[in-house]
Amino acid sequence: MANRADTGTFLSGERVDLRPLTSEDAQVLAPWMNNDGVTHVMFTGQRPMTVEQLTGEIRQQTENLANSVFLIEDRKTKKPIGYAGLYDIHPTARKAELRILIGAKEFWNNGYGTEVTELLTFYGFDRLNLNKVWLGVIDENKGAVRAYEKASFREEGRLRQELYRNSRYYDAIRMSILRDEYYPDMHTTHAKRFGIRS
């Protein structure tokens, strides 16, 4: 566990810290990826995932300079509760895909997903100079949709029968937030919440 502390906190919210995800975190993530209750309406979880497979996947994601991937920790207890990041950061189009998984069920429906979404949105616009942050979510993942809406993401469109799980097909919703929707009001608010702490 010593290696985990060495990476340090990169972004801080009011209730969460985000630190770089490392291959050593595979042991933390594996139980979530193999838990049907966690992945029930997600693309993740269609096949079993070993720690070794997950280690390789984390390495692949984190070594790709177009991704910024983080482990989410509860600030109060330092307990890992999930992972999230911005993926496929495009330097010309200035856009990135936001992905998030809160794996620790005791932290569900308490605003953690919204805060992480807002924190990564702030990071994407304020530090990476993005023009657009987008995401995909299964329409029946009501908690996630609610979190994204609270973070001011708007629906762009619907992908019909995009995911097959649980003996049926699910529609996916594509959502996004644009730079000119974010500035100046949301950025001002988020800079106070997520900016440098003395």
What is the residue-mean pLDDT, rounded to a whole number?
93
Strand content: 25-35%
Tell me the count of domains: 1
Instruction: Going across the biggest sheet, name each strand in turn.
Output: 1-2-3-4-5-6-8-7
Profile the largest sheet.
Answer: 8 strands, mixed
Shape: globular
Q: Give the oligomeric state of the chains in this entry, treating copies of one chain as homo and distinct chains as hetero.
A: single chain
User: Element order, helices and strands?
Assistant: HEEHHHEEEHEHEEHH
Distance between the termini: 28 Å
What's the architecture, going by CATH?
3-Layer(aba) Sandwich
Structural class based on helices, strands and sheet pairing: alpha+beta
CATH T-level topology:
Aminopeptidase
What does this structure look like?
This protein has 198 residues and is an alpha+beta fold. It has a single domain (2-192), classed as Gcn5-related N-acetyltransferase (GNAT) (Aminopeptidase), CATH 3.40.630. Helix content is 34%, strand content 32%. It contains 8 helices and 8 strands, in the order αββαααβββαβαββαα. It has helices at 2-6, 26-33, 36-39, 51-63, 112-126, 142-150, 179-182, 185-194, and strands at 11-12, 16-20, 68-74, 80-90, 95-102, 132-138, 154-165, 168-178. Strands 1-2-3-4-5-6-8-7 form an 8-stranded mixed beta sheet, sandwiched between helices. β7 and β8 form a beta hairpin. α2 (26-33) crosses α4. The two termini are 28 Å apart.
In short:
With 198 residues, the chain is of the alpha+beta class. The chain contains eight helices and eight strands; from the N terminus they run αββαααβββαβαββαα. It is globular.
